[in-house]
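User: Teach me something about this protein's shape.
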Amino acid sequence: MKTLALDLHWTWNHEADLLWQSINPDLWEKTRNPWITLTRTARSDLAKALADPDTKALIKAGMGRRKYELERSTWFGEKYPESSLSEVAYFSMEFMLSEALPIYSGGLGNVAADQLKAASDLGVPVVAVGLLYAQGYFRQEITPEGAQKALYPFNDPAHLPIQPVLTPEGDWFRLSVQTATGEIWLRAWKAVIGRATLYLLDTNDPSNPPAIRCITTQLYGGDAELRLRQEMVLGIAGWRLLYALGHRPEICHLNEGHAAFAALERARCLAEELGIPFSQAQVIARAGTLFTTHTAVPAGFDLFPPKLIESHLTFYSEERLGLPIQEFLALGRLDPSNRDEFFNMAYLAVRSSCAVNGVSQLHGEVSRSLFAPLFPRWPKAEVPVSFVTNGVHTPTWDCVAADELWTKAGGKGRWEGTLEGLGDAIRQLDDDALWQMRCASRCGLIQALSEELRSRQCTVGENGLWCLPSPALRPDALTIGFARRFATYKRPDLLLHDEERLVRLLKDTNRPVQIILAGKAHPKDMEGQAMITRWINFCQRQDIAGKVVFLADYDMALAQKMVQGVDLWLNTPRRPWEASGTSGMKVLVNGGLNLSERDGWWAEAYTPEVGWALGDGLEHGGDPAFDHSDAQELYRLLEEHVLPEFFDRNDNGIPHAWVAKIRESMARLTPQFSANRTVREYTETFYLPLSQRYRDRCAGMGNVPIDILDQVKKLREGWKSLQIGEVVIPEAGRGKVAHAFIHPGSLDPTWLDVQFYAEPLEGSARVVSLRRTENLQEGWIAYETDADLKGEASDYTLRIIPAMGTLYVPLEAPFILWQR
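Assistant: First, the predicted structure itself:
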């Protein structure tokens, strides 16, 4: 029983719910936490429950299921049986695994947790590192005035589905870290997620001084100093923890710049283990490091004042890494010589990695613009940032009715392989099956909310109990959901742009509509909190009382209910400020449809067959006129398309056009925007190739890093001595060969790649490398190509970049010279 309660595989196994419900139904419904259900049930009641034959059968089935899951063949094991990828270390500030483990804020934690679960399903070897927060992210309460109130309840580790990391002797494991002010201690905890493991660090050790004990108190709370200290614990202590426990990951995956210090500590550990200088170890470590950025605006990067870095990291940099503090600071600066420039964690992550990716196709483009300053004179398209679009772990977010439908169509193991043919299986389902599933899911949401509305809509104030108007939620109404962080760029009040028009839509008795909202604004975001107040005030209008519901304290448990039951999910960010977004992905598996701005994942997912889109696909900043235009388009889509399609029923009471969209959305989008696809893509695009590069550099431990450092140094020193002479590109049909004359200056010509470059006509840029043909007088060298240069001769410009070889260009060598 303890084994089952402490394996978070139960978070995506509907069958497990029956077991915990049979032991203590009341406690299970209140906490959705098997560990609490098991440990807080009175012994006499527990003994009675365990004696019940049905409960015994459920325990036996649960243990059998776990044994099967751990022993079955997996996608990774079958496709890459000879792979030498031993382990991927995944670092993130937050993980949204379950409401039973509240150490998350929102999207970043959702992505991290869902990828861990998918890695377990697929058999990809992943070990993760995060922080155990004493209070986590804040909990929300709404006052009678409609204001948000932040609450900070404590997480008692004894009640969380985690266990302390133990030494081989059975003692509690404690990690010692030496700092400039003395020794500090960190406690380590372990969460089991099927095949994957998540280690969590906390500083609340009684041996530490108060300021240290409070480092892991709140997620995204406090000031810049607290954030820096948390990121030092996550990255530096996190990697040291893995080493202390015997892990030797080949891949270090940094989920956002918060974790960038892990790359430095990885290099330090390598230097110590291999007996080489830190600079050489950096070269090796970089080959196996991947940085995933989630930021869509420069203000989203973590920036720290130089003096703060100096005060907290001088000891680490100079005593542990052997780097003067100014060299350390240069790793996080655009201009290393500018001593006033803030330290940018994302810049550190880029410089510590050999691969960088955004989290949607559009975000990849945005990120190339954000990081372009690090690669001056390089074309934007060649700034080394690719993309892997996020996906969600479908078994975590599906409801029972949807789970049964997918099982019927694709079998029990449908999310554990390549998903091939799954979409076609869904397309074979008839309208009646799909519509029954949707109606059952909507009714389940209405029923679930009716049972907890009082707790989420009432507060006790000076005047006693205060509650929002009792909602009159209907199981047959078009149910629209909107839930996310309330921030200005997300425009959560766009639907209120013309309140009277919205009221007319809500008062239509022939086409009943209801809206369910939830979301938090950061405690320091006054504008976001004002938007919540505006919605609360709107909910209290007597003419639409009960048809618009704002649910306080948006958390994972509420998110699961909403995405399972709503018919339509709204998302209205300003393009391109939402890197990906995952909330709308969660409704896909449940047959919900999306109406969203063409931003993030929806920019690549949208077609008229699967939902509706706002905007013109262009960027307009914060232009109020465009907000007005988007609001009008939103009302028009609801009035002229969404409502008619939902309420236009055939003789069997089924909305044929709406169900057609459900079918195509489920078939086309659910597999594509699943964490299953995302993790397979990370594995094949990054983990496997990078692990091979890492091993190659390790194998050439003595020479490769030295050669690379020497080559980069000489490239940096000699690049200005390069010269481009005469360049000849004949017009098509002239019968002449395109050629150029180059003087390499002090550089080895074999280190250079001489190219003709032209902006893309369609797709990617046109790049043609020239070959050396002869050495001329005074050091000049002739290059030529007989390749077909498509387009006009005037399209092309000669340029010189470092030859790839063992270098990652331009990440390790961002040098480029253009023909004038």
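Now, about its shape. The chain is about 40% helix and 15% strand. The first strand starts at residue 88 and ends at 91. If you'd like, I can walk through any region in more detail.
User: That's plenty for now, thanks!
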